[in-house]
UniProtKB/TrEMBL annotation:
A Pfam family of this chain: Glyco_trans_1_4
Name under which the protein is recorded: Glycosyltransferase family 1 protein
Transmembrane domains' residue ranges: none
Organism name: Sphingorhabdus profundilacus
Domain Glycosyltransferase subfamily 4-like N-terminal: 20-185
Length: 387
């Protein structure tokens, strides 16, 4: 089977109404598949003014805003109109990318028609509850996820370390790696612009510690803030730049009154802002890959990250950055201090990270997903022929 023979119905809980790393990857995948001649139809909640235009044909599914996080929407049902559209499209493979009710109904729809189902796992959903004092329900969430993932023909995970977590959790045993790529035209050391940095009231001679990501608590904002507090107590010269927007921005600004918040940056502006940092601090444990980590590495920055699934697949400890036990504030502060006071070490580890980033080509990475679709279709057809 050729990639051009594929007809993929893709279900997403958030394809383009709020920008995040997962839906950026999905849109890139769809763009690649369309260029290869495949047919793709996307089903997702929509809003009147999305964060960015969708790649491909997007069909709206019924949804409602999450009460405490109204920027996000919950898909409600595979409605009659959506089912009609799905039947007319006639997919030969279903791809689900979030464990919501609509994705579960789509997976059942596929099983009723003997179609294969691929699930891409983009985040460690079960860990989110730790940030809302609900960690006691984590085992229940794992069981709820397992019930869906075990019914899929295969999973794709963004890193080998996360795939191993999924195996240990008994989510599925057919797991391919769908890594992430980086746009080297946007993210490279040559994007560094000291004039722009000065325009943000950041001086040339004091190291800039950067945060990049959506401003929500599950990104480790509390750990980031506590470690920066330690640097201030130790009187370590440093500056902080925060790139991103989100509902926790007010809280984060109150915790980091001396930081420079530059808001959302996209495209070439994002590459410039990242390259103007001197190191990236990414304390999140919810990442399954760490797009921001790879983008910083491509800009020649050392990365200080939590020793978690995504970062462990990218950062080589003491070579291109440091991996620290999640939540270990003093250890984070120690390595941040070391980088702030040692420009040669920053340069050495940043160069190693940039070299590592050269391995990540988007087209080759996305072709692995197309190959997985084709394999699942072949396997399903072979099973159907067995008497």
């Amino acid at each position: 089977m050729q990639t051009s023979d594929l007809r993929i119905a893709l279900f997403s809980g958030n394809y383009n109404y709020v920008r995040d790393g997962a839906n950026q990857a999905l849109n890139r995948l769809v763009g690649y598949l369309l260029r290869q001649g495949a047919q793709v139809r996307i089903y997702s909640p929509t809003v009147a003014v999305p964060a960015f235009p969708p790649t491909g044909d997007l069909i709206s599914v019924p949804s409602m805003a999450i009460p405490n996080r109204p920027e996000y929407r919950i898909p409600l049902s595979l409605s009659r109109n959506v089912r009609r559209d799905l039947e007319a499209f006639g997919p030969n493979v279903i791809h689900i990318s979030s464990p919501d009710r609509v994705s579960r109904q789509a997976a059942q729809w596929a099983r009723n028609r003997n179609l294969p189902v691929l699930c891409s796992v983009h985040t460690r959903f079960e860990t989110y509850f730790r940030y809302y004092n609900l960690s006691f329900i984590e085992p229940l969430v794992e069981a709820w996820l397992r019930k869906l993932y075990r019914k899929c023909d295969a999973l794709v995970a963004p890193s080998e370390s996360f795939a191993q977590v999924l195996r240990e959790q008994r989510m599925n045993y057919d797991i391919d790696i769908w890594s992430r790529g980086v746009d080297r035209d946007i993210f490279n050391p040559q994007r560094r612009d000291m004039e722009w940095r000065r325009s943000q009231n950041l001086t040339d001679d004091i190291p800039v510690i950067g945060f990049l990501g959506r401003l929500v608590m599950e990104k480790g904002l509390d750990v980031f803030s506590d470690a920066i507090d330690q640097l201030r107590r130790r009187q370590v010269l440093h500056q902080v730049m925060v790139i991103g927007e989100g509902p926790a921005r007010g809280w984060f600004e109150s915790r980091l009154p001396h930081a420079r918040f530059v808001g959302f940056q996209g495209g070439a502006d994002l590459g410039r802002a990242v390259a103007c940092m001197d190191l990236l601090f990414n304390p999140s444990v919810t990442e399954t890959f760490g797009n921001v980590t790879l983008e910083a590495m491509a800009c020649g920055l050392p990365v200080v990250a939590a020793k978690a699934t995504g970062s462990q697949s990218l950062v080589e400890d003491k070579v291109s950055g440091r991996l620290i036990t999640p939540g270990a504030i003093n250890q984070f502060a120690d390595v941040l201090q070391n980088y702030c006071t040692n420009a040669e070490l920053r340069h050495q580890h940043g160069n190693a990270g940039e070299f590592r980033s050269l391995d990540y080509s988007w087209d080759a990475i996305n072709q692995t997903v197309a190959d997985t679709y084709a394999r699942l279709i072949r396997q399903r057809a072979a099973r159907s022929m067995v008497p």
